[in-house]
Amino acid sequence: xxxxxxxxxxxxxxxxxxxxxxxxxxxxxxxxxxxxxxxxxxxxxxxxxxxxxxxxxxxxxxxxxxxxxxxxxxxxxxxxxxxxxxxxxxxxxxxxxxxxxxxxxxxxxxxxxxxxxxxxxxxxxxxxxxxxxxxxxxxxxxxxxxxxxxxxxxxxxxxxxxxxxxxxxxxxxxxxxxxxxxxxxxxxxxxxxxxxxxxxxxxxxxxxxxxxxxxxxxxxxxxxxxxxxxxxxxxxxxxxxxxxxxxxxxxxxxxxxxxxxxxxxxxxxxxxxxxxxxxxxxxxxxxxxxxxxxxxxxxxxxxxxxxxxxxxxxxxxxxxxxxxxxxxxxxxxxxxxxxxxxxxxxxxxxxxxxxxxxxxxxxxxxxxxxxxxxxxxxxxxxxxxxxxxx
Amino acid sequence: xxxxxxxxxxxxxxxxxxxxxxxxxxxxxxxxxxxxxxxxxxxxxxxxxxxxxxxxxxxxxxxxxxxxxxxxxxxxxxxxxxxxxxxxxxxxxxxxxxxxxxxxxxxxxxxxxxxxxxxxxxxxxxxxxxxxxxxxxxxxxxxxxxxxxxxxxxxxxxxxxxxxxxxxxxxxxxxxxxxxxxxxxxxxxxxxxxxxxxxxxxxxxxxxxxxxxxxxxxxxxxxxxxxxxxxxxxxxxxxxxxxxx
Lengths: 390, 245
Fold this sequence. Notes:
The structure holds two protein chains of two kinds. By secondary structure, chain A is of the alpha+beta class. Chain A contains 14 helices and 13 strands. By secondary structure, chain B is of the alpha+beta class. Chain B has helices at residues 2-20, 24-35, 120-124, 129-132, and strands at residues 39-50, 53-64, 68-75, 83-87, 90-95, 100-104, 133-143, 146-155, 164-170, 176-182, 188-200, 203-213, 221-230. The model of chain B is unreliable at 6-19 (pLDDT under 50). Chains A and B meet through strand 6 and strand 7 of A and loops of B.
């Protein structure tokens, strides 16, 4: 305890230099917590939104269905299995039929994916109720806000849709935009045109066919030949991995800040040991072991981190509170980066994250403080008192 | 009695009118006499009108009947050396940039050829029309001051790309001047306009064809036959996969 007191006094005695080090270290401390918090918040939000908008409690995929291979959509559009029909009838499973098509808004050709879904479904947040319109001769469709912006589509716009039926024969009809919805999940929005399932089945001559079945939490998972069940964890794996990759990329920023702080601590320690040779010699002459003196100087350096936590808490807490409660907007569209991303991202700052960051910084500072202090162990006390040990 | 006379008169007029039209088979056979040959060697300029301007490509094509064809792109530099080999219903493409031969099959055949308004499938379709469609001569119209028979083709098979087609066939020269391709709903999807009809080796042949996706804005894809020779000898090795590299 006495050692801590003397180390603390010595450090404070350094004056402005100490507070400069402490401030730089506190920036790293706060920055690590905020950036990690935002990434954690993003990951949670991305998974949460993907569940709400796209996967509910998991999906059954037809064996040949591959979401990354549009050519698999035709071959994987098959009749829904009879054993799952009761769950479909009770809306515990919602079939989705997917097929490629082209739209011609303002005479421009644009490849799209037609996604047929039951307008009365309640498993996903997609506002499919808007498809329940009867006051139009055209086929009602809904599209995401990004898709609408990319193709300059507005509600009630009418344009031509061209698709092929199951035999490969071209068919074309006019469609009307019945609604535009805003989502942070790009796979629901980008390049997708949603329309009533029955209508799409009729258009493509694929009666009662689907590529995937979306499962409600109330439905039990059944083993169905030719269909594979994909759990929420499996379906959100890539999202989590992507956020993790981004997290590694972002860690470069705080690594640089931490490096700067550690350089400052290291330099201060080096200078301190060089200037305070007489003090070190006297302490050893008075009976302190070299190990105790090394420990004293290491502790002195490490207290920088403890002060940084205090200073960081003073100026960082309001910022962290703002990030958690109000969030931050990056003015980026999720569709541009290909991963679910809300307009406003809220940081998820947990006690675990704060304590973990504190321990990490404390350890790094202790190591950086110890490295220059090792020189003390090799000092001759008489040479040190004369100020010629180094 | 008066009504019966009217019906007889009405039917007689219709029968007489129908009798004026040549048979559908006769028209389609005469078109084949002009357009088809045992072998053809031609140099074609393809102008693709797109959103970013017009791209021009030149290619040399060797065909044997409607089952085998070999195409080599001569320009622009970016496409030069690209080769396509079609054997019956199979298609291979060689790209010099990747130095690889790729088989185009299944759904890939539905993609556009070099960004044009034509799909590989459009290019590959070689089944005689009468095997896939029921033909009816439905009238006479004038196109570019030429009197034409209007032949309507309606699909009799399920796996056709276009449910119906309409051909305007020059009554005198038996060359189609226009071909419209329709969806089942009756919506016009594509139009091919044939012009600059010239006599080549004793047959009438359109030197210019314009393929146009009618749902899209733009001027479509123009193909100009810069040279064409019918029934020339083509080496067997031309239609060999080894010729692609």
